[in-house]
Amino acid sequence: MNEQTPFRLPAIEATSNAALAARLRHKIDHKTKPLGALGALEDLALQLGLIQRQESITLREPQMVVFAADHGIAAEGVSAYPQAVTVQMVGNMLAGGAAINVFARQHGFALRVVDAGVAAELPAHPQLLPRKIGYGTKNLCQGPAMSRDQAKAALSAGMHVLQALPGNVVALGEMGIANTSPAALLLARLAGTRIEDATGRGTGLDDPQLLHKQDVLRRALARHPMSQPLDVLGVLAALGGFEIAMMAGAMLQAASERRVVLVDGFIAGAAALVAHALVPAVRDYLVFCHRSAETGHRQLLARLEAKPLLELDLRLGEGTGALLAWPLVQSAANFLNEMASFESAGVSQK
Ligand SMILES: Cc1cc2ncn([C@H]3O[C@H](COP(=O)(O)O)[C@@H](O)[C@H]3O)c2cc1C
Ligand SMILES: O=C(O)c1cccnc1
């Protein structure tokens, strides 16, 4: 692919459908419960029904995909852990030992790990999809994290990975030491959030380390001034990560296929921000599973007008928050599908 290569984003249909929404609302409101009593689960059931264009919901073969990559900005001392942890954790995931493996087994998700750009050779493994764009991004304090071509290639790879998956539900997660930094920068650039509000402790920085990270990110942002009009691909190339770009591509493709997308924490949220900036209709297909403890996630969710399902002070990523919310998604589908109505159960309405 070169700069002239045509690059096509998938067409995404907004889910809005007034007639179906009214039928779903009616069905939800006539279940045997006080009006609105299932709270956020009711909004979720409505969202799922609109995604599937049905008054009952079928959730099939849920898939978990973890995108892994390294980040040149790790050299600036913005993470509490060394870069080598990325490849080591990919090994752990392929051996079945990471938190995401435990939850994927628990909830019946098939799990794949995508090498989006880990800075090491990875031996072949049946659950590993080799889609390496590079051996980590460049240090974005010194120049763009990646070329525009690499950004396009990563978005495309994410789309293709998604296209090949079965089922109609996909959860997306990531692994990449230092990736809370590009995520914070994307939030700052795409949503106008101040660096001090976008930057968190990630894997566990102490106070002086956090101040250092903010300093690094402030300098990095200044190095990549904003263009008018906003050039989203340029922002992604300047400030992004290979796994973030691939996740954004996967979200766009999943939405174009009307799949339900379970969005994990802050970094997956940054990918959602990119995907939304590219094709706003993607938003309709995204289920925001939790609000992580990472500073900035609140603003990120507010920007996307998202009310997360859970708030557990998680700060792990990998997709863990998405799978923890899965039983709620199932419950939303099940109450819509199975719960009696006032009429069918002979219960008096007020
Ligand atoms: C052992 C270990 C397992 C992880 N699993 C996810 N992350 C998470 O932490 C990293 C982001 O935080 P920061 O920007 O501070 O590096 C990412 O790899 C993310 O997936 C982990 C981090 C570590 C250390
Ligand atoms: O919310 C997240 O995705 C997150 C937060 C801290 C570290 N890793 C991931």
Automatic annotation (TrEMBL):
Enzyme class (EC, first level): transferase
Role, per record: Catalyzes the synthesis of alpha-ribazole-5'-phosphate from nicotinate mononucleotide (NAMN) and 5,6-dimethylbenzimidazole (DMB).
Pathway(s) where this gene product acts: Nucleoside biosynthesis; alpha-ribazole biosynthesis; alpha-ribazole from 5,6-dimethylbenzimidazole: step 1/2
Protein name (Swiss-Prot/TrEMBL): Nicotinate-nucleotide--dimethylbenzimidazole phosphoribosyltransferase
Catalytic activity: 5,6-dimethylbenzimidazole + nicotinate beta-D-ribonucleotide = alpha-ribazole 5'-phosphate + nicotinate + H(+)
Superkingdom classification of source: Bacteria
Bilayer-crossing regions: 232-254, 260-282
Gene of this entry: cobT
